[in-house]
Amino acid sequence: MRGKVEAEFADLGEQSLKNIARPLRVYSVGSSLAASQPISAAAALPVPDKPSVAVLPFANMSSDPEQEFFADGISEDIITALSRYPSLFVIARNSSLTYKGRSVDVKQIGRELGVRYVLEGSLRKAGNRIRVTAQLVEAEAGNHVWAERYDRDLADIFELQDEITEAVTIAIAPAIADA
Fold this sequence. Notes:
Layout: E1 8-15, E2 24-30, H1 32-36, E3 52-55, E4 59-60, H2 67-83, E5 89-90, H3 93-97, H4 106-113, E6 117-126, E7 129-138, E8 143-153, H5 157-178
Parallel strand pairs: 3-5, 3-6, 4-6
Antiparallel strand pairs: 1-2, 6-7, 7-8
């Protein structure tokens, strides 16, 4: 490219990028000022015009590792149900899944995914009972918009997932619209 294009290139070295398994060599293209600026791997994305939400993987707080399946199922079902609302911009499951098991500030998640709202939750199991909590947070300010707790018997896991998914979806879609 040297001598062919009127631009300066600066080698920024190998960078770890989201959703790419191995580091990639990154270059900065532009003026000498731009070439000297480091690139941020977690650059902020613009927030879309319509209400936007990311559903984080629900945390399994029980000692039962099999409940991980249940926690992931609730997260995925809520994403699917919210995606049916054409008035909402919902982040894909694979993008939200990158935050599984990580403790990340909601404000940072909002910037990285370009969303206004983040839904997070957890579940705990004790004997034959399960408690699922969910909370909707406005990402920029970190304010809670909505929160709820669901205590149920663990009889039919799919029926329970459907019930909680429906309850959360019906509750947060209007909460986002009102906010």
